[in-house]
Amino acid sequence: MFGGKKKEEELDEFNIHVARHRPEELAKLAKTTKFTRKEIQLIYRGFKQECPTGMVDEDSFKNIFSQFFPQGDASQYAHYVFNTIKHNHTGKISFEDFLGILSKVSRGSVQEKLQWIFGLYDLNGDGLITKNEMLDVVTSIYEMLGRSTEPQVDEHSAKEHVEKIFHQIDANKDGVVTIDELVEWCSRDEQILQSLDTLDTVL
Amino acid sequence: MASVAAWLPFARAAAIGWVPIATHPLPPAPIPKDRRKADDEKLLINVSGRRFETWRNTLEKYPDTLLGSNEREFFYDEECKEYFFDRDPDIFRHILNYYRTGKLHYPKHECLTSYDEELAFFGILPDVIGDCCYEDYRDRKRENAERLMDDKLSENGDQNLQQLTNIRQKMWRAFENPHTSTAALVFYYVTGFFIAVSVMANVVETVPCGLRPGRAGTLPCGERYKIVFFCLDTACVMIFTAEYLLRLFAAPDRCKFVRSVMSIIDVVAILPYYIGLGITDNDDVSGAFVTLRVFRVFRIFKFSRHSQGLRILGYTLKSCASELGFLVFSLAMAIIIFATVMFYAEKNVEGTNFTSIPAAFWYTIVTMTTLGYGDMVPETIAGKIVGGVCSLSGVLVIALPVPVIVSNFSRIYHQNQRADKRKAQRKARLARIRIAKASSGAAFVSKKKAAEARIAAQESGLEIDDNYHQEDIFELQHHHLLRCLEKTTDREFVEMEVPYNGQPKRPGSPSPLASPTHSAASHPGLLHACCGRCCGQRYQRSEAI
C-alpha cells in the first residue's frame, strides 16, 4: 500500500542507539588500578548488572546514587560527581573511567584524593574555588539529608555552613581557594587526614 | 551478590568530597582494612541454577558478544571452574541457541523489555533475530514505543503544570486543558454553545417559513427573519474571532499555530462572514457569495476541540491514509473500466441514458456502492451482464480496506482509553512509592540504632563477631556512609511520621517494615528496603537462592 515507509523510519528513532562497550582485560585493569582481580570482578559484576551496555549515563548514575541516600535528593551531588569523571562527548562513562576514579579516590595517595576533591568543588574548572561554587556543592550535600533530620535543614543551613568554613580554608583571604590552600587546610588537621582514609570500602 | 551494593564503594569514594567541609570529624571505618572475608564469592550457581554446556568454539563464533570475548572472564568462578550468570535461564536458552545455530529466536510469551535487557547484557544486537520471529518482535516493539511516547508526553505535560509564569502561558494552558480552571471550563462551554447555535442557525435558515409574497413558492426563514439571523451570525462570528485572536496571542509558537489544522478551520469558519460584509447584495457576485456561505458549515468541525472521539477519528483517517488511498485508486480503476464497457454496450440503444463515458460513471458508482437508484438502467443483454458483474465486484472492492481502517481506529481508540487509565494509575502508583520511601527511612533509623548498639558493644571490649555475612559488611559500610553525612552537616537522621496504612503489596514492591527486633543477619538488609521498586525483584530472587 502507499506511503508506509515513513513509519518504520520513525520507529528506528525510538530504538535508542546504544553504544556497547567492552572493558579492558581483567589482568590489565588489575595492574593499572589498586584493586585485586577478585575485587575488580565483584565491582564489574555490579556495574554490568546496572548498566548492561557497559556505559553509564548521567541519569542512571543519579538513580544509583539516590538509592544510597533514601531520605533526600542525591541527584545534584551525583551530577557534580559525574562531572569529575572524564567522559567522552556522548556524556557516558565506561567501566575503565569508573574504575580509575574509584581506585584513585578510595585507594590513592593523599595528593590524588585532594586533587579529586578540588576538582569536585571547582565547578567551572578554572583552578579556583569561589564561594558560590562551594555554596552550590554544599547545598547539594544538604539536599541529600532530606526532611527528617534533627535539627531541620532549611535554605540557610548550607549558607551558614559555607560562611563558617570558607574563610578558614581561604588562608590569604582573597575570596578564592586554590589547590594549595586546600592541601594546606587538610594537611594541617590530623583528623581530616584520617577521615580521608575511612571512606575506603572493604569488598 | 546484590548488584547495587557493588556501587557502594563508589558512593563511599565520592563521599570524600565532604571531608574538607565537615563540621565534625568523620567516624572511623567500621571494618579494619587488613581483615578480608574468609569465604569470598560463594556464588557458585550457573545461570541461576541451570547448567548449560557447550563447546568453546561455539561461543567464539561471535567474538563481539559477551560470551565470545574476554569479557566473560569477569564472570569466571575459579573455585567451581565455571561461569556464573545471575540472569534468566529461560531466555538464556535462546541466546545459547544463537551461538549453536546462528539464528536468534524471539519467544512470544516473553516480555519484550526483559528479552531486550538480556540481549543487551550479552552484547547481542536485536537485528540478528531470525526472519521467522522478526515480524512479531517489531510489532511488539512498536506497541511498546508508542506507549512510552504517550507516557513521556503526559509526563512532560504534567511537569509543565508547575512552571507557568506569565499570562500567556496560563491562557494557553487554559485553552488546551479546559479542566484546569473554572474560567477555562466556562470558556470551553460558551464556545461549544455558540458553535452549536451557529450551526443550528445555518440549518434553520433554509427551512421554508411561509409563502413568498407576490410570487409562487415558499419563503425560507432566512429571508423572512433576515435581521434576526444576521444578528445571530454576527454574534457568533464575533465570539469566534475573539477566540481565534486570543488563541493566537497565547500560542507559544505562533507560526506553528497558524499552520495547524484547527486554526485553519477557525479561519475558514469566520472568513465568509467578513468577505460577505465586503460584497454588496449584487447579482453578479451573489453567486460567489452563496458559495461562501457554504463554508460556514465548516464551523461544525470546531467541535473537534470539544470531542476526543472526533479527534481520534480524524487521527485514524490520517493514519490510514494509505489504505484510503488504495480504496480510492482501486475504485477509480474499476469505475473507468466498467463505465467504458457499459457505454459501448448501451451506445446503440434508442433513447439511452448512457450518452458518454462520463455519463456512465454515475451509473457505475451507484451500482458499485450497491445504491442502485434506477435512474440509469441497462437495456441490452450485454449491458445487464456487465451491470451484474459491476455490482458484485463493487461489494468486494469496498469491503477490502474497511477492516484495516476499523482495526486502526479500534487500536488508536483503545490506546487513548488506556492512556487515560494509565495516567490515573500512575498517580496512585506514585503515591504508593512515596509511602514506601517513607517507610524505608524509618527502617534505616531503626537499623542505625541497632548498629550503634553493636559498635558500642565492640568498643567496650566484647568479642568481635567474625562471622560477617556478605550483606552485613555492605550494610555496615552503608550505615557508616550515612553517618559520615550526618557528621559533615552536623545533623542527625530521625524517625519520620509514617502514615502506615497497610497498602496491599504489589509484586516487586519492598517488603514490609523491618521491626527493630529482627537481627540484621537473618534479614535482607537496608538495601532491600530502600531500593524498593527497581531492585526489589532482583533482591527477592537472590534471597530465594
TrEMBL record, chain A:
GO terms for molecular function: calcium ion binding. Residues 109-144, 157-192 form the EF-hand domain. Keywords: Calcium, Metal-binding, Repeat. The keyword Repeat applies. The keyword Oxidoreductase does not apply. InterPro entries: EF-hand-dom_pair, EF_Hand_1_Ca_BS, EF_hand_dom, Recoverin. It comes from the Eukaryota. Belongs to the recoverin family. This is EF-hand domain-containing protein. It comes from Gryllus longicercus. The lineage of its organism: Eukaryota, Metazoa, Ecdysozoa, Arthropoda, Hexapoda.
From TrEMBL, chain B:
One of its GO terms (biological process) is protein homooligomerization. Keywords: Ion channel, Ion transport, Membrane, Potassium, Potassium channel, Potassium transport, Transmembrane, Transmembrane helix, Transport, Voltage-gated channel. SUPFAM superfamilies: POZ domain, Voltage-gated potassium channels. It is a multi-pass membrane protein. One of its GO terms (cellular component) is voltage-gated potassium channel complex. Residues 499-520 are annotated as: Disordered. One of its GO terms (molecular function) is A-type (transient outward) potassium channel activity. Pfam families: BTB_2 (PF02214), DUF3399 (PF11879), Ion_trans (PF00520), Shal-type (PF11601). InterPro entries: BTB/POZ_dom, Ion_trans_dom, K_chnl_volt-dep_Kv, K_chnl_volt-dep_Kv4, K_chnl_volt-dep_Kv4_C, Shal-type_N, SKP1/BTB/POZ_sf, T1-type_BTB. The keyword Transmembrane applies. PANTHER family: POTASSIUM VOLTAGE-GATED CHANNEL PROTEIN SHAL, VOLTAGE-GATED POTASSIUM CHANNEL. This is BTB domain-containing protein.
